[in-house]
UniProtKB/TrEMBL annotation, chain A:
Protein name (Swiss-Prot/TrEMBL): ABC transporter ATP-binding protein
Keyword S-adenosyl-L-methionine among UniProt keywords: no
CDD domains per record: ABC_Carb_Monos_I (cd03216), ABC_Carb_Monos_II (cd03215)
Keyword ATP-binding listed: yes
GO molecular function: ATP binding; ATP hydrolysis activity
UniProt-listed Pfam families: ABC_tran
Lineage: Bacteria, Pseudomonadati, Pseudomonadota, Alphaproteobacteria, Rhodobacterales
Domain ABC transporter residues, every copy: 7-247, 263-506
Highest taxon of source: Bacteria
Keywords: ATP-binding, Nucleotide-binding
SUPFAM superfamilies the record matches: P-loop containing nucleoside triphosphate hydrolases
From TrEMBL, chain B:
GO molecular function, one term: transmembrane transporter activity
Transmembrane segments: 16-42, 62-80, 92-108, 114-134, 146-164, 197-215, 244-261, 281-311, 323-345
Name of the protein in its database record: ABC transporter permease
Membrane topology type: Multi-pass membrane protein
UniProtKB keywords: Cell membrane, Membrane, Transmembrane, Transmembrane helix
Organism field: Marimonas arenosa
Superkingdom to which the source organism belongs: Bacteria
């Protein structure tokens, strides 16, 4: 490392029961450096960051900081306030915003003294406007967080960290919900601040971004540091091998054979709701044996479309036809009509965290004869069923009787996948199915979706990851401001412009 | 400086021990007000113990006192599992009692084999309907059931008083606002000679068992737990959240209504407007002490009843106020809440200089 040091993690170790989540991890960060932290789910990234921020007490090891004058000191352990005082900021993957506050209040939260009777918000507002200008991350200041899209909320999170003049900024999967152009402008903005001396730890699964944006790459695997290198010397091949510890191949994709129409939406509109943008006159057809990909920045109507197809809301106008029959969808009739649903928020809608893994696996088919008899649960059959599915779908965790909330995000997604796919649904709604998953888990999801397609299912893939849409979808739609438009283009830039609601510069005519 | 640090890997056995430890601590803490009241501590405790375990009679008195608390405790535990906050147990208890009196004072007559189930059914239905109102307001209009079920208590109590002054008034009651006595064939049988313990206790135990089986072994119980723990996921999985709420409301209200039947047809024989000294509210404490576990409800009800009966006896013998019983029960609840907190978190003390 040739830059002056600012942060050094030395030998950080954390054990959870039998699991060694972090095993003597050393990590150095230089001033004005972007360090990318890569690793699969459960590799120890989050554990490491939680120790840095004092949320976990390390079993061994220490965190060292250098102040502006270059003096080294040790950061007290287990004290979040110490990390905040040391001006370390973090943008979490799962947002930590209060829905009933305005954007301005959210950013100010925790920065104001408790006892001041009157608040002078003008300087704060000016500073924030300035930040928005310089970073290109714009959000309406007076809007309520609850009314913002996921993408906008992420921007608020980043602004919140920037507002506190952080010296070290940790970005956990920051671009998961941004358009390629927004991501570019975010990187440009962060790059500008890095040149001014900000140091960034950048956690991501997107190799392309890591390679384009970082100065140095550290890879974690199974709680250990698997390797570290300058980005200039790295390529995707090396990094992936380091992360998974084996040769990695993307799922093979062969052209499908679309069959009859299984789902047809015509002229469907949905009124805007709480945390939900409207749908405007949306129509498409889905055939068996094909995957349609819906690209777009979150908060442009995807939620409404997914909730509609899940049966959680009803359309204002327009018709939904399943296998040629007009249908009114409720969660129950949607299931009965053969629609398998992989929800966007897997923790909120996908599983009941306090129920066991086995119970969650049968949650959508409690009346099936192998699950219950005369209203009584067939506990042994349920356990057997759970063991089978966990084996087939490689759901790992503390066991089938353990509460589902103890599983990692990737394993929760595999649990949902197992529950959905075991019924061999004719239609699969996969809403952001790989968000936050590592390569291996994401590849597994992709493989399963392709498998379902080969079996003859029609798949609707809603995703913000354009690479994912491009690699999986037979036909591509772009969602913007409640409108859905099909595109034949497979050009990243052109689709990116459509996602922003513009036609690209090339297609201006 | 004090810090709150979460504990990791708390064992189940330890979790189950928490309420027991809390109950013991609360009993020990009761020494403080005892001393303040000027009573000798050790004899007072001995008297309290004797007041419950001193004779067969005192013991059955305690069981008699525990009976309505098991019913109302189950009512709260079942509803709270679905996060349906039924605070209206007291009102549903009175509705159950009123229905029992309506059916059991001569509306119909027959053998005990007909009358007892009929009276129980009437009370359960009345209690269930009592909770159906707040539950419907919740599922239809999103009204907070904490407020509606609580406020309904007062409406129901005044309604009962009105009935006792009017159509239900006993013409032979010398002008007292009380109902006619329930006919003998509709009375729950006494379990032991010359003791007040009655069949309601057995029914309560059976229902606790049933509640436990339903919660842990049936589809409906699983739905209730799913709705309680994560309503959004339950809805997404097509579990019919509103139907679960309505079903739970009916069950919970019915259990509270049975508490009223048990008191009126097992113990008192007629209805007055002071039938319950807040059994409906105490049932909430019982359910919380039991951590919403139906089997635990029985134990918690026995504990609370012991404290009440023991403290009554102590106050008579030592001349201290019987409010000590309320105080001990309240402290138990606080102790349990604190203990559950300390079961999941620990405090770490640090010297400021070290930080």
């Amino acid at each position: 490392m040739d830059k002056a040091p600012i942060l050094s993690l030395r030998g950080l170790t954390k054990r959870f029961g039998p699991v060694l989540a972090a095993d003597h991890i050393d990590l150095d960060l230089g001033r004005g450096e972007v360090l990318a932290l890569l690793g699969e789910n459960g590799a120890g990234k989050t554990t490491l960051m939680n120790m840095l921020f004092g949320q976990y007490l390390p079993d061994a090891g220490s965190v060292h900081l250098w102040d502006e004058a270059g003096r080294e000191r040790e950061l007290p352990q287990g004290q979040p306030q110490a990390a905040i005082d040391a001006r370390i900021g973090m943008v979490h993957q799962h947002f930590t915003l209060a829905e009933n506050l305005s954007v301005l209040d959210s950013v100010l939260l925790g920065t104001e003294p408790f006892w001041r009777p009157f608040r002078n918000r003008r300087p704060a507002r000016e500073k924030l406007l300035e930040l928005m200008e310089s970073s290109g991350l714009r959000v309406p200041l007076e809007a309520r967080i609850g009314d913002l899209s996921v993408g906008e909320r992420q921007r608020v999170e980043i602004l919140k960290a920037l507002y506190r003049d952080v010296r070290v900024l940790v970005l956990d999967e920051p671009t998961a919900v941004l358009t390629p152009q927004e991501a570019e402008s975010l990187f440009a903005a962060v790059r500008g601040m890095v040149d001014d001396g900000l140091s960034v730890i950048f956690i991501s699964h997107k190799l392309r971004e890591v390679l384009a944006f970082s100065d140095r790459i550290a890879v974690l695997r199974h709680g250990k540091k698997a390797g570290e290198m300058a980005t200039s010397e790295a390529d995707a091949e090396i990094i992936i091998r380091m992360m998974v510890g084996e040769d990695h191949s993307a799922p093979e994709r062969v052209a499908g054979k679309p069959g009859e129409v299984v789902l047809r939406l015509s002229g469907v509109s949905v009124a805007p709701g709480k945390e939900m943008r409207p749908l405007r006159e949306v129509g498409f057809t889905l055939r068996s044996g094909e995957i349609i990909g819906i690209a777009g920045v979150s908060g442009n109507g995807q939620t409404a479309l997914a909730r509609l197809l899940s049966g959680l809301i009803q359309p204002q106008s327009g018709t939904v036809e399943v296998a040629g029959q007009p249908r009114k969808l409720t969660p129950k009739t949607a299931l009965r009509a053969g629609i398998g649903r992989i929800p966007e928020d897997r923790h909120q809608d996908g599983v009941v965290g306090d129920l066991s893994v086995a119970e969650n696996l049968v949650l959508e088919r409690l009346d099936a004869p192998d699950v219950s008899k005369a209203g009584f649960l067939r506990q042994r059959a349920i356990a057997e069923h759970a063991r089978e599915l966990c084996r087939d779908y490689d759901v790992r965790g503390p066991g089938i009787e353990a509460e589902a909330k103890l599983l990692s995000g990737g394993n929760i997604q595999k649990l949902i996948l197992a529950r959905v796919l075991e019924n061999a649904p004719q239609i699969i709604l996969a809403n952001q199915p790989t968000r936050g998953l590592d390569f291996r888990a994401a590849a597994e999801v992709s493989r399963r979706l392709l498998e379902a397609r080969a079996r003859g299912a029609g798949v609707i893939l809603i995703s913000e990851d354009l690479d994912e849409v491009l690699s999986l979808a037979d036909r591509i739609f772009v969602m913007h401001d409640g409108h859905l438009r099909e595109t034949t283009s497979r050009d990243r830039a052109e689709i990116g412009y459509m996602m922003a609601g513009q036609t690209g510069p090339g297609a201006a005519a | 400086m004090i810090e709150v640090v979460p504990r990791e890997n708390v064992s189940r056995r330890w979790q189950a021990l928490v309420p027991v430890i809390a109950a013991v601590v609360a009993l020990l803490l009761a020494a403080i007000p005892l001393v303040a009241a000027g009573a000798p501590v050790v004899p007072a405790y001995a008297q309290m113990f004797k007041g419950v375990f001193g004779s067969v009679f005192t013991f059955t008195e305690m069981l008699t006192r525990a009976t309505p608390l098991i019913f109302t405790g189950l009512a709260a535990a079942v509803a709270f599992r679905a996060k349906l906050w039924n605070i209206g147990g007291e009102g549903q208890l009175y509705l159950g009692a009123l229905a029992a009196v309506w059916v059991g004072t001569g509306l119909v007559d027959g053998s005990p084999w007909l009358m007892i189930p009929l009276v129980l059914l009437a009370g359960a239905v009345a209690g269930g309907l009592g909770m159906l109102v707040p539950a419907t307001l919740k599922t239809r209009f999103g009204a907070d059931e904490v407020v509606t079920s609580l406020l309904l208590n007062f409406i129901i109590l005044i309604f009962v008083q009105m009935m006792l002054e009017g159509p239900f008034k006993d013409p032979m009651g010398l002008g007292w606002p009380q109902s006619e006595p329930i006919i003998d064939n509709a009375m729950l049988p006494q379990l032991m000679d010359r003791m007040r313990l009655h069949g309601g206790f057995i029914i309560a135990l059976v229902l606790a068992l049933v509640a436990w089986v339903v919660m842990s072994r049936t589809v409906w119980g699983l739905k209730i737990r799913a709705v309680g723990e994560n309503r959004a996921a339950a809805r997404h999985a097509g579990l019919g959240v509103n139907r679960v709420y309505i079903g739970v409301a009916l069950a919970s209200g019915a259990l509270a209504g049975l508490a009223g039947v048990s008191e009126v047809a097992g113990l008192k024989g007629y209805l007055t407007s002071d039938l319950s000294p807040g059994f409906g509210y105490t049932g909430i404490i019982v359910a919380m002490l039991a951590r919403l576990n139906p089997a635990g409800v029985v134990l918690a009800a026995l504990y609370v009843a012991s404290v009440f009966v023991g403290a009554d006896s102590m106050s008579r013998a030592m001349g201290v106020s019987s409010f000590l019983a309320d105080l001990t029960v309240s402290m138990s609840l606080i102790c349990v809440l604190l203990a559950s907190f300390f079961a999941s978190y620990r405090l770490r003390f640090k010297r400021a200089a070290a930080a």
